[in-house]
Specification:
With about 210 residues, the chain is mostly beta strands. It has one domain (about 1-205): Porin (Beta Barrel). The chain is about 10% helix and about 55% strand. Strands 1-2-3-4-5-7-8-9 form an eight-stranded antiparallel barrel. Strand 4 and strand 5 (about 110-130) form a beta hairpin. It is elongated. The model has no long low-confidence stretch (mean pLDDT about 85).
């Protein structure tokens, strides 16, 4: 499964570069940081710093509407940050890494546009981290996919660069319920939530 997802990512990156000189092509590279949390893990707050990196294709439908397909690697999870007043305090959290495909609609409003749509992530790796040491997640294991919804706003910085702010939320559990001493969230499973700061770099003609 990982090999197939990695091949798709490589294929989209390659096609982005090969068709960069085509005047009808609209696409490029995408990347940026994110902060995330996992609802239902006993922690709270967007304390896990992650990132995403990949490529995108932009498909105009009209002057106001367009579609955007992205494919990339994304690192999500959760983290209990350290306490500067107690150096010996334990830190822990979850790591979920995916090859993710957002399928977005865009609506243009003058200089900015709104983006919304589903995203499907294929799990590449997962782990439980305790005091910076990684452990395998078992009983239950992490789900093989993360189906989420994302929405946000984008603003062009120049002819080549566009910045986006997005929020994404898992719609189905990324791991089944585990008793961590808190009340169940939604149906009792664990769900990814993330705030994304994304930069798109366009290759080729506008």
């Amino acid at each position: 499964m990982f090999k197939n997802a990695a091949f798709l990512l490589f294929a989209l990156l390659l096609s982005t570069c090969l068709f960069a000189q085509d005047n009808s092509f609209q696409g490029g590279l995408v990347g940026g940081p994110l902060v995330s949390q996992v609802s239902g893990d006993g922690l709270g707050g967007f304390d896990k710093l992650g990132y995403q990196l990949g490529a995108y294709v932009h498909i105009p439908f009209s002057k106001k509407w367009a579609g955007k397909i992205e494919l990339g690697y994304i690192a999500k999870g959760s983290q209990r940050p350290g306490n500067p007043d107690n150096i010996g305090e334990n830190t822990w959290g979850y790591r979920f890494n995916y090859i993710e495909v957002p399928l977005l609609l865009e609506r243009q409003f003058r200089k900015f546009n709104i983006q919304f749509g589903p995203a499907i992530g294929v799990l590449v790796s997962s782990s439980y981290v305790f005091n910076k040491e990684k452990f395998e997640i078992v009983n239950p294991e992490a789900a093989s996919t993360d189906i989420s919804f994302m929405g946000g706003i984008a603003y062009p910085l120049s002819d080549k660069f566009t910045a986006s702010m997005r929020y994404s939320q898992s719609l189905v559990p990324v791991r089944d319920y585990v008793d961590v001493g808190v009340n169940p969230v939604f149906d009792g499973g664990m769900y990814n939530s993330a705030l994304h700061l994304i930069v798109h770099y366009r290759i080729g003609a506008k």
